[in-house]
Amino acid sequence: MTQALNVDLRKLLISQKTLNTDLDEDAVSGFPSQGFVSTPPGVSTPEMETKLRKILKYHRKIFLGDGNAAPAPDRGVVCDLDVGNVRPVAQRARQIPPHLLVKVYELLKKLLETGLIEHSESEWASPIVFVLKKNGVDIRMCIDYRVVNEFIKLSRYPVPLIDDLLIGYESAMWFMSLDMASGFWAVLMTERAKLVSAFICPFGHFQWIRMPFGLKNAPLIYQAVINNSLWGFVRLPPEEEALVDRDVLEFLKLDGPDADRTRVQDPERICDEDSERSSPMVPVLTDEMTVFQRNIAAPSQMGPVLGRSSYIDDIAHGAPTWDQLCEDLNALLFRLRYWNISVSLPKSEFGKLTIPYLSHEISAEGIRATPKIAKSVQDLPFPSTLKGVQSFLGSLNYYNKFIEDLPVVAASLYELTEEQVRSGRDLERAKEAFEILKCKIVSTPLLRHPDRAKQFVILPHVNPWAACAVLGQMHDGVIQPVRFTGRILNEFELRYHIAEKVVLAILRVLELFRPLIYSSSSPVVIYTRYSVLKWLLNSNSIEGRCLKWGLELFRWSLEIRRVQRDEDGFAAILGAGITPREHLDAVVEELIPAKGRVKKPPAVSIEMLESDYQGVVLSFDGAAKTSTRM
């Protein structure tokens, strides 16, 4: 029986002081020269854990412990804010409750002592807002930069899609996640950026020396820093590369031709002279010249270190073996040391079978919604305002890939009006949908990692007002879900034949999950009740929208398998996370929104119209109404 690894690294490395003291020579001497004894998957040994600890000890200088200590400045980057020729805006300071004055003073004093802020004479001034932390005692300072952000020229650097960062783990067994220590505070500000960042409060007028949270381009600047360190596009200029520890340069093979290359650096050895050179240094770069502006191309040995991107300051990675995970971790930490990027030890995980990442849990089996966050909606009452309904739907959209037929159930919530919610009239369907969605988010299924070596399966499900589908793969003879998707039909699509709506559902899967499916070597299997797909792919006489759909489907290698409504054999191969179509059809009968209801014509007898009638007859959906005028 396998067991999860529980390496308590926090007891080993508690704070920055602990990281740099009390390390005996035996604890960091060489690794065992022979490989470890083979162990079952998911089981660690003391030797394996020791190997990981040695790597962390060797790179201990970049780890920060608990607290809000300021990290060393990152190399090669500064925060510059371009507001053009806009006239500075100085807002008034907001009042602070008397019982929070002392806490605000202590926080500002600490920021001054750590060199994060300084007194300002800027013409800019943004107000501060304080929020109580979860413990109900400590406070978090926020600056209202909404006015300032309106004038800052937006950077176009891309932030990766979260779904793109949750794939690529199909062969991983062991995982790690790293959280950069107060990442934004590690970026220095240019002089004009300092002036724009100025904030005001009853205690005075201050400005930031390091990049604060809340500024428009701050996440994009830090995303560029971490991405470049992971992928290796550009390197530091010579004058700043001279500040990098010698063992890092040797590992990256960046040391000069006259350097002593006989000393092989690895995590089993710690060089005291390198430890003495590791004190944080202020970057040599001028305010206007970052590594991206100097554009010195990095050599080939500084290529991708993990083959993955970060989400701003969060990095996740998995490896099929423990040794591979240790090798990847060692290479990553050398790269972070090159750029002088600090890592928060308490917020990082190493050598785990499951890691939290971006409100998801990643394991070798697949991904789940974080249970703590998902269960937080369990006791929510039905919102009393339309904004509350929209907020609830917005929170569900983050986990939409986990919720089967989300648009089918949520349709009656999307069509609510403010007056309807406040008055409480005609909310029976909406409240029932609300309760169903709460149950669905609490019991979200495990989604398997997409594996390009396996055949993909599409299971479409449509009804009068929505088109949904499941993207799955076969595991041990059972179709397991990989992703769920769907959308509400527009007013024109509502009139489509049910078979045409099936085509819409399939096209949505193929387009939305193209990066997952496109490189698969096997044809995509589609289980459907209708044979219209075969007709679209093989007919020579189609036209209109059917021609458009046929051309889009023709690009894919598809295998159509028709199933009957009550086919027991098909239901038997559906995984626990996929609801049989018949059960879904029965549930949604009670949730039909207004746009999905069939409008029945009024009962009008033909006998009501006299044979010699001279008026005008207007026809609506087969019903007849008499009128003497148009």
From TrEMBL:
GO molecular function per UniProt: endonuclease activity; hydrolase activity; RNA-directed DNA polymerase activity
InterPro entries assigned to the protein according to its UniProt record, in alphabetical order: DNA/RNA_pol_sf, Retrovirus_Pol_polyprotein, Rev_trsase/Diguanyl_cyclase, RT_dom, RT_RNaseH
Domain Reverse transcriptase RNase H-like residues, every copy: 451-553
Keyword vocabulary terms for this entry: Endonuclease, Hydrolase, Nuclease, Nucleotidyltransferase, RNA-directed DNA polymerase, Transferase
Top-level lineage group: Eukaryota
Gene3D superfamilies: 3.30.70.270, HIV Type 1 Reverse Transcriptase, subunit A, domain 1 (3.10.10.10)
Chain ranges of the Reverse transcriptase domain: 133-229
Pfam families: RT_RNaseH (PF17917), RVT_1 (PF00078)
Protein name (Swiss-Prot/TrEMBL): Unnamed protein product
